[in-house]
Design brief:
By secondary structure, this protein is of the alpha/beta class. Helix content is 31%, strand content 18%. The strands form three sheets. Strands 2-1-6-5-7 form a five-stranded parallel beta sheet. Strand 8 and strand 9 form a beta hairpin. Helix 2 packs parallel to helix 4 and helix 3 crosses helix 5. Bound molecules: S-adenosylmethionine (SAM).
């Protein structure tokens, strides 16, 4: 999978993408991630990516032209463009699964008051086969799309076959199943014991316990 991310703060991605699952996926060359500075797609000497909104509301808006130029510079016939926005479709495990099956994802991270609305209109006119997705990671407002994008990239990367060492875990994730309560050594901590069944060695009963005690998504 190829992932292209456009942001005005590319350095934010340096450390988070160098650890754990994402690092493994990159080193196995299962995922290739490019983080691009939106300012590199401006045409003026000040590398201006934002401007005041029409209509006089407060704050700044990310300009359409640098984003359109940026997206076009990496666009491929299979690419899916994703705009991070609090007004987007609420992200969940089944959306993670859907995105993990794409071969090329392009993320646009908003900042300030958001992104000029015409980015969506023009991209959808130009590439009608795959409409741009607008995704929110929750009903709250972040200062930028970067952390939302990192969460999405991590959640989809672990679903790509070959990334996780334990395929069972990937399978459970892809079905949207959560684990039951988990315990490790020692068998007793401050007087609280591991449920007896788990130390019984009785595999059928343990499996039964595990499947009936799976945690559930809260909504
Ligand atoms: N005033 C804007 C609005 O009403 O949509 C909020 C802009 S927010 C301060 C700046 C940027 O952060 C957004 O353009 C978006 O890219 C990102 N963002 C904020 N909350 C988000 C969320 N819950 N999910 C995804 N992206 C989010």
């Amino acid at each position: 999978m190829q992932i292209d991310i456009f942001t005005i703060f590319p350095k934010m991605f340096e450390s988070p993408f160098d650890w754990g699952t994402i690092r493994i996926a990159k080193s196995k060359k299962i995922v290739s991630i490019n983080v691009w500075d939106l300012r590199n797609f401006t045409n003026d000497i000040h590398r201006k990516v934002d401007d005041y909104p029409y209509g006089g509301s407060s704050g700044m808006v990310l300009k359409a032209e640098p984003i359109l130029k940026a997206v076009r510079s990496v666009m491929t016939p299979d690419a899916r463009v994703v705009l991070l926005t609090p007004a987007g479709k609420l992200y969940n495990q089944s959306l993670a699964q859907e995105l993990s099956e794409e071969s090329h994802l392009i993320f646009i991270c908003g900042r300030y008051q958001g992104v000029d609305e015409r980015v969506k209109d023009i991209i959808n006119m130009e590439y009608p086969d795959k409409t741009m997705m607008e995704i929110s990671i929750g009903n709250y407002v972040l200062s930028g799309g970067e952390l939302a994008c990192m969460s999405i990239v991590e959640s989809i990367t672990r679903l790509i076959p070959g990334v996780l060492k334990n395929p069972e875990s990937m399978f459970a994730d892809s079905l949207g199943e959560l684990d039951p309560p988990l315990y490790t050594k020692p068998a007793e901590v401050e007087g609280v014991k591991v449920p007896e069944i788990l130390t019984s060695g009785h595999h059928t009963k343990i499996n039964q316990w595990n499947s009936t005690n799976r945690k559930q998504w809260t909504h």
